[in-house]
Amino acid sequence: MCFVRLFSGGPEVDLTEDHLKFRAQGCGACGINQYGFKIDFYLPVDPKFSKYRVTGRAVEFECKKVGVGQVWPRLSEKAQKLPWLKTDFDRFAFDDSEASSEDDLSPQQREALDRMEKEALAEESTVVQDLKTLYLFMYNVFQWIGYCYVFGAISVRWYLYGSESRKDAFETLGPALMVCQSAAVLEVLHPLLGWVKTRVMANFMQVFSRGLVLFALLAVEPKLQSHDLVWYLFLSWSFIEVMRYPYYMLASIEKQYGLVTWLRYTAWIPLYPMESVCEGLVMLMALPHFDRSNKWSINLPNNFNCSFHFATFLRLYMVLFLFGVYFLMQQMYEQRKKKLNIPSNSKNKKA
Predict the structure, then answer these.
(1) Interior/surface letters 199-213, b for 16+ CB within 10 angstroms, e for the rest
(2) What is the pLDDT of residues 192-222, one digit of tens each?
(3) At a CB cut-off of 8 Å and minimum separation 6, what does 233 contact?
(4) Of 74-88, 177-191, 223-237, 313-327, where does mean pLDDT reach its minimum?
(5) What gap in Å lies between CA 234 and CA 204, rounded to an integer?
(6) E-only strand ranges, 4-121
(7) DSSP letter string over 97-110?
(8) Segment 71-77 long-range contacts (CB within 8 Å, at least 24 positions apart)
(9) Looking at the DSSP assignment, which residues form a beta bridge with residue 235?
(10) Catalytic residue among 52, 272, 317, 333
(11) DSSP letters of 192-229?
């Protein structure tokens, strides 16, 4: 639907039995320009009893049909959907001479009503789909900008300060990563809602592992924050996401480019092992500190009559972490073969 703000001079209107021509100078979707259209009516109208008026936001036309009790299946002569022309259901009504109940409608009237109901549902579905697409696109843009900032800051600081920049990686870049990682929780909800076609478990495992290391270990233990390993961990996290989110941005608008797809499903080969090793080593270094401090642990007695030893949980999680890494690697390998059309080994052997 096109809205145009008219300038002085008024519109040029040519309303006949067969068609309606409209032309005006105004400001609309294409800026200050000449706007116009022509509609050839499905059946003749009566120009003498038809009228129009110019309001503050639109030009309203009232075209009277020549025939009494006629039901038009559409406005235009050709069965062609005009993208800028929509039914105004707030003003739609059958003629007074037409049947008052749905049971008394003629087949032609019922067909027209059913078609307009389908159009209304289709328009509503299109609006919801457009809003979902906009949200997913903006979410991926936000995450990509955040990780680009982290990766760029890591690179610039290393160029300027060398190895000294590794000591304060958490202090300078930790807050930005916390924002991005907090937003990443939404990536578990997106497949649950059916908005994206990714596996919930794979997303949950990655988000949980990074959140555990970033929020539960590094954020609360200052002795871990200055270790060089944190710099390598942040580097691997940010580099992976700089390669990943452009692919999801394009996927949200149903676009795909070969280089972006190749980087998404190839860059993980060196970066995922690097990330996994760094996360595992951070957990190993954190164990003695949390054994001594009992941080995140729940001791007896308490109101719930239960206890929780975080260091023991971390040991158990590290065992499961190994299986999780294998699972993620296997998933990425299978997706890479599918997305890049790489034949499997079994097919090669048969050939």
Answers:
(1) eeebbbbbbebbebb
(2) 998 998 889 999 999 999 999 999 999 999 9
(3) 213, 275, 278, 279, 282
(4) 74-88
(5) 19
(6) 5-6, 12-15, 19-28, 31-40, 45-54, 59-65
(7) TS-SSGGG--HHHH
(8) 71/98, 71/106, 71/108, 71/109, 71/112, 72/42, 72/43, 72/112, 73/42, 73/108, 73/111, 73/112, 73/115, 74/42, 75/39, 75/41, 75/42, 76/39, 76/40, 76/41, 76/42, 77/40, 77/41, 77/42
(9) none
(10) 272
(11) HTTSS-S-HHHHHHHHHHHHIIIIIIGGG-HHHHTSHH
| pLDDT exceeds cutoff 60 at 95 | no
CA distances 91 to 62, 94, 184, 303, Å, are 12, 10, 45, 63
Task: Express each pLDDT in 266-323 by its tens digit.
Answer: 999 999 999 999 999 999 999 999 999 999 999 888 888 899 999 999 999 999 999 9
The burial of 280, by beta-carbon neighbours within 10 Å (0-12 exposed, 13-18 middle, 19 or more buried), is given as middle
User: How far, CA to CA in Å, does 39 sit from each of 16, 21, 75, 77, 85?
Assistant: 11, 7, 8, 8, 10
Q: For residue 149, indicate whether it is catalytic.
A: no
CA distances to 150, 157, 169, 227 from 163, rounded to whole Å, are 17, 9, 11, 11
Amino acid of residue 276: S
Mean pLDDT (whole number) for 172-193:
96
Q: Are 310 and 290 in contact (CB under 8 A)?
A: yes
Measured on CA atoms in the order 332, 335, 337, 341, is the torsion positive or negative? negative
Rounded-to-integer distance, Cα 279 and Cα 205, Å: 13
Q: Tell me how many helices (H) and strands (E) the chain has.
A: 10, 6
Which tokens go with 340?
């890049």
Number of alpha carbons in the 13 Å side-chain half-sphere of residue 148: 10
| pLDDT over 90 at 10, yes or no | no
Per-residue pLDDT band at 159 (split at 50, 70, 90): very high
- How far, in Å, are 74, 273, 292 from residue 184 at the CA level? 47, 20, 31
Q: Which of 279, 317, 326, 334 is catalytic?
A: 279
98 flagged as catalytic: no
At which residue do the structure tokens 């942040």 appear? Answer: 234
